[in-house]
Specification:
The protein contains 11 helices and 9 strands. With 314 residues, the chain is α/β, with parallel strands linked by helices. The chain folds into 2 domains: 201 residues, Spore Coat Polysaccharide Biosynthesis Protein SpsA, Chain A, CATH 3.90.550; 68 residues. α8 packs parallel to α10. The chain is globular, with a radius of gyration of 20 Å. It starts with a strand and ends with a helix.
């Protein structure tokens, strides 16, 4: 039975941090702890965290505010005694029974476990959306192809084997928005990646509502960096198609949410992406459909091999 550490970095989340903590403390799995690391909040978050007397909750309430990734790293260091570390933002919620599902999957010893999520508005109202319902696992190269076509890892409940987290270099402090995707990318080098077709938690939209995605410039740059570094034709094709897919979403957002002065960094990244794509082989339409087809193939493979694994005692 693995020991699970649920890590909740917090910064000015007084409106939602109680929901996040309560969703963890209400889990039925017997061997876990919750580690909440407050990054010098000024909105009363620390007082809300400090009000809990449950011994399973380990709080680190810092007076100073440091960078987002740096705070995530000191939060995860608190859980280094655990076998697996479960990611939960302070404005998200774990689903009931999520830790039982994660612990069962951890018996396979994957480097990363992720799964289904439910999208909710800032006020908690459920939002529509399609979710992939079938469990699968994949190799490093297979997982990287999926990531290049579009991120498939939802943060609520994303669970990293502790030794893989530190071997992969923790959260990158050089990134401000893509540090999670970069860590998922690295994790495959340390074991297989598992996806569970069960809801692990609720992912909450920001308070500001619809608008230009704040991470888009960094996402485009990350995608172009991976294209430059691609070692195989298959990954290069996925990087090209994924870059084109994200650039289209950026252009649609720019048209839908006109800004008198769009961020210069975003405009520069979009212009560079267009230049890269103009020199690349013909972009294949349907990146999402190809990604879905790959996931279905991996789910079928797991369904076919699982009976043999059970009969072999694994």
């Amino acid at each position: 039975m693995p020991r699970l550490g649920v890590v909740i970095p917090c910064f000015n989340n007084a409106d939602t941090v109680n929901e996040a903590i309560d969703s963890v403390l209400g889990q039925t799995y017997p061997d876990f702890a919750a580690y909440v690391c407050d990054n010098g909040s000024s909105d009363g978050s620390a007082a809300r965290i400090a009000a809990y007397a449950d011994p399973r909750l380990k709080a680190a309430l810092h007076a100073e505010t440091i960078g987002k990734s740096a705070n995530w790293n000191r939060a995860y260091a608190l859980a280094s005694e655990c076998d697996y570390m479960v990611t939960l933002h302070a404005d998200d919620r774990l689903a009931p029974g999520a830790l039982d599902i994660l612990a069962a999957e951890a018996a396979r010893r994957p480097a990363l476990i992720h799964g289904l999520f439910r999208a909710i508005a800032y006020d908690g109202a459920p939002q529509p959306g399609r979710r992939f319902p079938f469990s699968y696992d994949c190799s490093d190269a297979e997982f990287r192809e999926l990531l290049l076509l579009g991120n498939v890892v939802a943060v609520p409940g994303a669970t990293i084997r502790t030794d893989a987290f530190f071997a992969a270099g923790s959260w990158s402090t050089a990134l401000t928005s893509m540090q999670d995707v970069e860590l998922w990318w690295r994790c495959g080098a340390f074991g297989r990646i598992s996806y569970v077709g069960h809801c692990l938690g609720d992912y909450r939209a920001g308070r500001a509502g619809p608008g230009l995605p704040g991470h888009s410039a960094e996402h485009l740059t990350w995608q172009m960096d991976k294209l430059d570094a691609a070692r195989s034709g298959r990954l290069r094709r996925a990087a090209i198609d994924g870059l084109a897919r994200h650039l289209r979403s950026v252009e649609q957002a720019l048209a839908a949410f006109p800004d008198p002065v769009p961020p210069a960094r975003l405009l520069e990244a979009a212009a560079r992406a267009r230049q890269v794509l103009s020199a690349a082989p013909l972009v294949r339409p349907g990146a999402y459909r190809r990604q879905l087809g790959l996931r279905l193939a991996y789910a079928a493979r797991r369904a076919l091999t699982s009976p043999f694994r059970r009969s072999a005692g694994t």
